[in-house]
Q: What sequence folds into this?
């Protein structure tokens, strides 16, 4: 099956995110503005260069986890840590999807965002800005 071949579902990886798990995708949430929980986790993974975990997220069944995995790998790529061919193929596939993500941006509640917009160059720039140059 195409999905299994692209996302390597038979790798023995146990996905911590299920389809029923609700998480929000975004780089700033709330008045502070603080990043959503899994955005903060992703920033930590980027800071520690945890490629294996970001790759697991990229291959998750959860679309928001996939988006965070893709953004994290793209952030590392922007900092000179190259993605492999398989990661690029998955990200290119994700960009073509119109699947909605639950998004959190500021005080917007229950906003929907499609995958192509979530992984756009403008969105990557926003994540890089929020992450900060000193990290």
A:
């Amino acid at each position: 099956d195409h999905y299994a071949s692209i996302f390597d579902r038979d790798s023995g990886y146990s996905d911590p995110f299920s389809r029923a798990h609700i998480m929000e995708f975004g780089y700033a949430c709330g008045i502070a503005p603080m990043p959503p929980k899994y955005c903060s986790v992703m920033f930590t993974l980027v800071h520690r260069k945890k490629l294996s975990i970001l790759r697991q997220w990229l291959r998750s069944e959860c679309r928001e986890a996939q988006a965070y995995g893709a953004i994290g790998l793209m952030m590392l790529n922007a900092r000179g840590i190259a993605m492999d061919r398989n990661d690029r193929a998955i990200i290119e596939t994700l960009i073509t999807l119109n699947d909605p993500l639950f998004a959190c941006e500021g005080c917007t509640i229950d906003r929907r965002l499609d995958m192509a917009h979530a992984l756009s160059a403008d969105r990557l720039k926003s994540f890089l800005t929020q992450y900060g140059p000193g990290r």
Summary: Helices lie at 2-7, 37-47, 51-58, 63-78, 85-95, 115-118, 121-131. The chain is about 50% helix and 15% strand. The radius of gyration is 14 Å.
